[in-house]
Amino acid sequence: MSTSATTNYQPATEFNPIIIDSFKAYDIRGELGVNLNEAIAYRIGRAFAQISSQRYHAVDATTELKNLKPAIVIGSDIRHSSEQLKQATIKGMLDAGVDVIDLGMSGTEEVYFATSHYQALGGIEVTASHNPINYNGLKLVKEHSKPISADDGLAEIQALAESGQFTTENQSGTLQLLNDKSAYVNHVISFIDTDKLKPLKLVINSGNGSAGPVVDLLIDKLAQAGAPIEVIKLHHTPDGSFPNGIPNPMIEANRVATQQAVLKNKADLGIAFDGDFDRCFLFDEHGEFIDGSYIVGMLAQAFLNKHPNESIVYDPRVIYNTEAVIKEHNGKAVISKSGHSFIKQVMRDSGAVYGGEMSAHHYFRDFFYCDSGMIPWLLTIELLSITGKTLSELVTGYIAAYPSSGELNFRLTTNDAPTIISAIEDKFSVKNPSKSLLDGLSLNFDEWRFNLRTSNTEPLIRLNIESRGDKELLTIKTREIQQWLAVQGAVPA
Questions:
Q1: Is 112 strand, coil or helix?
Q2: CATH of domain 202-289
Q3: 408-492 in CATH: which number?
Q4: Is the domain covering 2-182 a CATH 3.40.120.10 domain?
Q5: Does the annotation mark 129 as catalytic?
Q6: CB neighbours (10 Å) of residue 477?
Q7: SS3 for 121-151, per residue?
Q8: DSSP string for 190-249
Q9: N or C: which terminus of the chain has fewer CB atoms within 10 Å of its end residue's CB?
Q10: Backbone dihedral angles phi then psi of residue 136, each to the nearest 5 degrees
């Protein structure tokens, strides 16, 4: 569907300097009415559009930017505040003289796709993903769906939005509604060979977020291809009041509904999403939640089966299993600092076919090096079909060979993070471990290792411990470090 559209948001005519403290390392998130509202969204939209337009018109005509359209794509999730924030952001971009393509209600990966598909200057998704209901935010990308971070453009946007020193344009931009998802759905489904799919029963929990309409379209595509896939839909209808709780499967209590539905329906696989479905969480046929690090290894295997000798990018929090799988399947292991902007850049630099983080973010070269929550579960049902194995059979060996603690989060009450990280390095230095400072502190003692790092998005430090096939050693070391952290003033979050 393609129609013209209008926005009713009317901004203030005077712009006094303000402080906007909703800018984070990778995106913009804030509490509604506290540090995020329509006036702030307008300023951010106008600043982003002005800076994007200036870059576009400043470059030489032969550069890659000149092949793009001077337009910005925008979409929004299902939260009740998202549409109003989106309209304010659109008005800011239009007032900056930049054309806008409105995708309607969408997930973050749809903005990633549309930014490259429409050859736009950039894209914005209005979403708070898994944050509490009184929060919202904006995720921004620039041309070719490249990330924008605090040290790569986001600080410049913040400074202009805060100052309000916008240029005056002679002509407003134009607004177009393009909410047809068919190109995106066709691209996502192209990652698998539907002819190879065997009969499978799936439970898909959309969390009343933005995933439902895309799930419907993908199920229709599978049916049209004759794929024998049965789907039980759970919490499927988008509802910004989130009647079944904020869609965040990282919280154990939020997994129960999916687990129960898998067992009740004797399903082969459970799938759950966060609010903007850029993350995908999997449950095996027994309803067991599978930690994201083992999914990274499984998907690395799936890609290396299709693309031998390719590079796989992974983060340093949990590495034993991923590195073993990559080596076993003759891939090239490329480690990267955690965080989507780092992973995406390392993938571009190495040409990696796939990148994964234990946080359930999965990145794909053929998806503009961006993360997708829909591609992983499609790849999983293809792998189940090809191997004839259950999900538990695919990952049980991984889990036994390389058990891990899962990510443990700690809130600091006394010492700061650098002091604690330095102190734990001193504590273990007598054992002469191999050390990496790529992302926080990683110490490797051959039979076990740990990574302790500061969160990029929250005031926490995060601990991951793993061993080589020794669950008792893992338990001992996890308890030892937890007790030591407590003495340092780091308490479980």
A1: helix
A2: 3.40.120.10
A3: 3.30.310.50
A4: yes
A5: yes
A6: 20
A7: EEEEEECCCCCCCCEEEEEEEEHHHCECCHH
A8: TTS-GGG---EEEEEE-TTTT-HHHHHHHHHHHHHTT--EEEEEES-S--TT-TT----T
A9: N
A10: -155, 180
Q: Domain spans of the chain?
A: 2-182, 202-289, 291-400, 408-492
What is the chain's pLDDT, residue by residue, as a tens digit (493 residues)?
445 567 888 888 788 999 999 999 889 999 999 999 999 999 999 999 999 999 999 877 667 788 899 999 999 999 999 999 999 999 999 999 999 999 999 999 999 999 999 999 999 999 999 999 999 999 999 999 999 998 889 999 999 999 999 999 889 999 999 999 999 999 999 999 999 999 999 999 999 999 999 999 999 999 999 999 999 999 999 999 999 999 999 999 999 999 999 999 999 999 999 999 999 999 999 999 999 999 999 999 999 999 999 999 999 999 999 999 999 999 999 999 999 999 999 999 999 999 999 999 999 999 999 999 999 999 999 999 999 999 999 999 999 999 999 999 999 998 899 999 999 999 999 999 999 999 999 999 999 999 999 987 778 999 999 999 999 999 999 999 999 999 999 999 9
Q: What is the DSSP string of 144-186?
A: GG-B--IIIIIHHHHHHHHH--PPPPSS---EEEE---HHHHH
Return the structure tokens found at 20.
């906007």
Q: Which residue has the tokens 């359930």?
A: 360
CA separation for the pair 413, 489 (Å, rounded)? 5
Q: For the chain, what is the total number of helices (H) and then of strands (E)?
A: 14, 22
Angle at 114 between CA 112 and CA 116, to 5 degrees: 75
Q: Tell me: domain 291-400, CATH 3.40.120.10, correct? A: yes
Cβ-based neighbours of 292, under 8 Å, separated by 6 or more: 281, 356, 357, 358, 359, 360
Task: Please give the torsion angle defined by the CA atoms of residues 362, 248, 84 and 25, in that order, rounded to the nearest 10 degrees.
Answer: -60
One-letter amino acid of 344: K
Please report how many Cα atoms fall inside a 13 Å half-sphere around the Cα of residue 258, on the Cβ side. Answer: 35
390 Cβ contact partners less than 8 Å away, ≥ 6 residues apart: 268, 284, 285, 384
**Contact (CB, 8 A) for 197 and 87:** no
* Token pair 């041309």 in the structure block, residue: 143
Task: Please tell me the distance from the alpha carbon of residue 202 to that of residue 73, in angstroms, as a whole number.
Answer: 33
The two domains 202-289 and 408-492 share their CATH topology (first three levels equal): no
Tell me the whole-structure pTM to 2 decimals.
Answer: 0.95
Per the CB < 8 A criterion, the answer to whether 74 and 123 are in contact is: yes
**C-alpha distances in Å from residue 470, one per residue of 288, 358, 401, 404, 449:** 21, 20, 8, 10, 12
Strands 99-105 and 28-31: unpaired
